[in-house]
Design goal:
heterodimer; A: 310 residues; alpha/beta; Alpha-Beta Plaits; 2 domains; 15 strands; 33% helix; elongated; B: 284 residues; two-stranded antiparallel ribbon
């Protein structure tokens, strides 16, 4: 039994009168892939900066890999790979020279293996061919890869990846997902933030959802989803009739459009709906059951769309 | 196996110059800085060539060392240092020290250095060590180029001091190097001011301008007799004291005070930089 990789207790950050992060209790279990979700401006990056000791909390505490932060930074951070608010490197140095510089700055890394580890990291993010190119000539996607590569200079126990798929094309996004999966398989805990819920939904075991500085909900993906019910949709030329049948079966919140009826499924077995419709002569042209996406969960929790937090 | 055991417990090297060497490569391989060094080196070349081409015997009315250049090439170094300590050398130190923290903050690499992790005190220490090395390198560039051009165009030999007495060539060489070291330490103290100013902002150019304003304001105040009480405390007040090395016997008084003043500036501004940077929220 190991301690949680990340815990915060009442973590708060105020900038002047504005409360950017409001008393959040984060819990990232060891070995989890934790999706840290929330719209732009909801306080994710400020939280991550506090986890890493870049920003001092106004109140509350942080424990990273069972050590207090920022006091334990020297011991803990070498075991943590971090990508914070996008890539940042020296524009006139090559990708390889930039990673070598970060490795040089690390007092705990072995200089004899530096070159090999830098190249292995570049290779892992597909940049070995562009290793000698200046960073300023890199595309946004390549820059993002280099930043991820810098987290892989040595084995890590925890990766903190803030919006790792920003600027990546669909292919790059898939690669990041599989990279995260393979690292998680190796035992690394991953905290990955995103404002694109659907993007990380598929790779996470746990999620936490931020909204205007507060942590609305966190837990395993199943736990978080359980708060929202699946909905059934019957596509038909007679939506009013279908809606009546669905209500009779016990579906709630049934509503109709010009060619479909939609309702919350609850405990009702979905196959009953089609059977009932056909039995009563309603021509069914299509039927589907949608399990709620995290975006639906978010809308349910906040009553608003997943836009920029004010 | 627990996830926490994946990475082996890192071994920390207490004495490692890797980061400093990386910092120096960053400074000395940057094209902008190489060009700046070229400008610093151009001044003694210009002086030597101009004096060589001008008709001998005519007093130009320039700084003291000028009239002695034709006697001994080593004076080219001293003339160049005298001319450059007003603007070019402080500007060079201001560019490097202004860039030290603000430059990293500006492009965002500061947050990645701190999460490597580089402890904040260590970052300030390494940045300042690099500034000091640069101050010496810049000053030496001027003085060595001056020596080279001077010896080529005017030759060496015994050195006639301003007071009229003569010293041997080797002695003269040592004294020029001594003057170079003294000025380097003076510029290093300006670099400490620069480190502090650089920790205040994310705009390296703004920091550089502020540092040049600081040294120039110091020169201006130094030339206003009504505030003479302030003069001994000005960072630039004792810079010209290096000329005392070329008296017989050497007058150490002003230079010793100059080193104390430089040391005081380093201590005060280093502490200020630390106080400012230690708990600063890095949001760049």
């Amino acid at each position: 039994m190991t301690a949680a990789a990340v815990t915060t207790d009442g973590l708060t950050k105020r900038f002047g009168r504005q409360v950017a992060v409001d008393a959040i209790d984060l819990l990232v279990p060891s070995g989890a892939v934790y999706g840290f979700l929330g719209p732009n401006g909801s306080g994710k990056t400020t939280t991550i900066r506090m986890l890493l000791g870049l920003v001092t909390p106004s109140a509350g505490t942080v424990r990273l890999l069972d050590r207090p932060m920022p006091r334990g930074a020297g011991d803990v951070l070498p075991r943590v790979g971090a990508l914070v608010e996008g890539p940042a490197f020296h524009p006139y140095l090559s990708g390889r020279a930039n990673l070598a510089r970060l490795d040089d700055a690390d007092r705990t890394s072995d200089p004899r293996t530096s070159r090999a580890r830098v190249d292995a990291a570049l290779d892992r993010v597909g940049l070995l061919a562009a290793a000698t190119k200046r960073y300023r000539a890199y595309s946004l996607g390549m820059r993002q890869r280099l930043a991820i590569g810098s987290c892989l200079l040595r084995p890590r126990d925890l990766l903190v990846l803030d919006e790792p798929t920003n600027g990546l094309d669909p292919q790059g996004t898939r690669e990041v997902r599989s990279l995260v999966a393979s690292l998680a398989d190796g035992g690394t805990t991953v905290l990955v933030s995103s404002h694109l819920l659907s993007e990380v939904e598929q790779m996470c075991s746990h999620v936490g959802v931020m909204h205007v500085g507060r942590l609305l909900v966190q837990g395993t993906v199943a736990e978080v989803r359980s708060g929202t019910e699946a909905q059934a949709t019957v596509e038909t030329e007679q939506p009013q009739v279908a809606a009546r049948i669905m209500r009779e079966l016990g579906l709630r919140d049934v509503r109709t459009t010009h060619a479909s009826a939609v309702g919350l499924l609850g405990d009702i077995a979905p196959e009953k709906i089609v059977a009932a419709c056909v039995y009563q002569g309603v021509p069914v042209t299509g039927f589907r059951v949608d399990t709620p996406s995290l975006e639906d969960v978010f809308v349910t929790l906040t009553g608003e769309g997943f836009d920029v937090s004010g | 196996m627990s996830a926490v055991e994946v990475g082996s417990t890192p071994r920390t090297r207490i004495l490692s110059t890797r980061f400093l060497r990386s910092e120096l490569r960053l400074i000395f391989l940057r094209r902008r800085n190489i060009a700046g060094m070229g400008v610093l080196a151009a001044v003694p070349v210009l002086i030597a060539v101009a004096v060589r081409l001008s008709s001998p015997g005519r007093d130009s009315g320039g700084p003291d060392f000028f009239s002695s250049i034709t006697e001994n090439g080593l004076f080219v170094s001293l003339a160049a240092l005298t001319l450059e300590l007003g603007l070019f050398l402080p500007l060079a130190v201001a560019a490097i020290s202004g860039d030290s923290i603000a430059g990293e903050a500006n492009i965002g690499t500061l947050r990645y250095l701190l999460t490597v992790p580089v402890a904040r005190a260590r970052l300030l220490g390494v940045k300042y060590a690099a500034i000091v090395v640069f101050a010496f390198a810049a000053t030496l560039t001027v003085s060595l180029t001056g020596m080279l051009m001077g010896l080529l165009l005017f030759g060496g030999g015994d050195m006639t001091l301003l007071s009229g007495s003569q010293i041997g060539f080797a002695d003269g060489l040592v004294r020029v190097l001594g003057a170079t070291a003294y000025l380097s330490l003076c510029f290093a103290s300006l670099g400490a001011v620069g480190l502090f100013i650089s920790s205040l902002t994310e705009q390296p150019i703004g920091a550089t301008i502020a540092i040049v304003i600081f040294s120039t304001a110091s020169f201006i105040l130094d030339s206003i007799p009504q505030v003479s009480w302030l003069h001994p405390f000005l960072i630039t007040h004792h810079w010209l004291a290096f000329g005392d090395l070329f008296r017989a016997p050497v007058a150490w008084g002003d230079m010793t005070v100059g080193l104390y003043v430089a040391g005081a500036y380093v201590a005060v501004f280093w502490l200020a930089a630390w106080a400012r940077f230690a708990a600063k929220d890095v949001t760049s």
